[in-house]
Structure formats: C-alpha cells, structure tokens
C-alpha cells in the first residue's frame, strides 16, 4: 500500500506539472521504469488515478485526461458554484468569530506569493500558489465534501489548461479579484464573498476560452 500511495502521488505530480501532457498515453512498464518500481504498485496507482478522474483506462495503460471545450466549461461552472459556496462559508465563519487571525494572514500570504510569482514570470510556481490560495479557502469553509470535490475539479482543469496567467491582462485582474475576495471574507460579508469567488472562476474560464479560440486561428 505504501508503494502504491507513493506511485499515485508521484504520477499525479508529473501529470499536474505537465510532464505528461493531456491525452498522452502511459503504460505500466514506462511508469514503473520512471518511478523505479515494480508494475504492481503502478497498476494500483493507475486505478486510483482513474477513480480520481485524472486519467482514463487505455488498454494496458492509461491516458491523461483531456477536457474538450464543452467539458471544460462544465467543469468551470461547477467549480464556480463550489468556490462561491466555500467562500461564503468561510466568510460566515469569520463573521461568527470562528476563524483565527493567523488563518487570514496565511491566506493573504498565499495571494501575495501568487502575485509575486506571476509578476516575475514564474508561471508554474504561480499556478501552485494560486491553487493553494483557493484550496485554503475551501479548507476554511469547514465543508470537507465541497473541498474534496473542488480538489478533483482542480486536477482536471489544471491538466487541461495552463495558460490563463500568461495572458497580458490576467495578472492584474487576478490580483484584484483575489483582493476583493479576501476583503469580503475578512469582513465576514458572505454574499459578497460568494459573488467574488464565482466571478473570478468564470472570468478564468472566459480567459481559457479566448486562448483556445486564438490557438485555432
């Protein structure tokens, strides 16, 4: 079980970091060689990643998930609803005095780290900080079902799209939206936090759709 968990974790990292591209096929033999493991834990890791929605079965191996334009939009729509909910719940906890000041400080630091990495052109790092920021809000919502569902959606979206922060107008827009979301949560304004989170997600979806249109030209 320990080797299976290690194989699953490492393969997930390689997929999310873009080492294995969307649609790329992986065989048990290839993955076992990369991970320096036997094929048995790799086989079990493949099954777990299929259940996670990160890969699909493909003969004796798997292929990395690749969401088409419509499926990607559907994923963003659900993510928008869930992130609106988690932001609202986090703000409600703040209003009730259930959130320690250190938790908000840590959230602000994650947003600042994402902005700094983006401004410096370290886009892969920025994506990781950005995801930690949103993941932290999900954790602060104290709703583990929503947090787990978001984690799965984030994996699928991250694999299929890695370009939105590279668009010239996006870094400033993302930073401003993060600040608005943080302010709403810190003030305990649940409805505003919900709206800010959902708007941010759908703007990101629109940016990806524009990128896809430009690539097709």
From TrEMBL:
SUPFAM superfamilies linked: GntR ligand-binding domain-like, Winged helix' DNA-binding domain
Keywords: DNA-binding, Transcription, Transcription regulation
Location of the HTH gntR-type domain: 1-67
Domain of life of the source: Bacteria
Any one GO MF annotation of this record: DNA binding
Annotated SMART domains: FCD, HTH_GNTR
Pfam (any one): FCD
InterPro entries, alphabetized: GntR_C, TF_FadR/GntR_C, Tscrpt_reg_HTH_GntR, WH-like_DNA-bd_sf, WH_DNA-bd_sf
UniProt name for this protein: Transcriptional regulator, GntR family
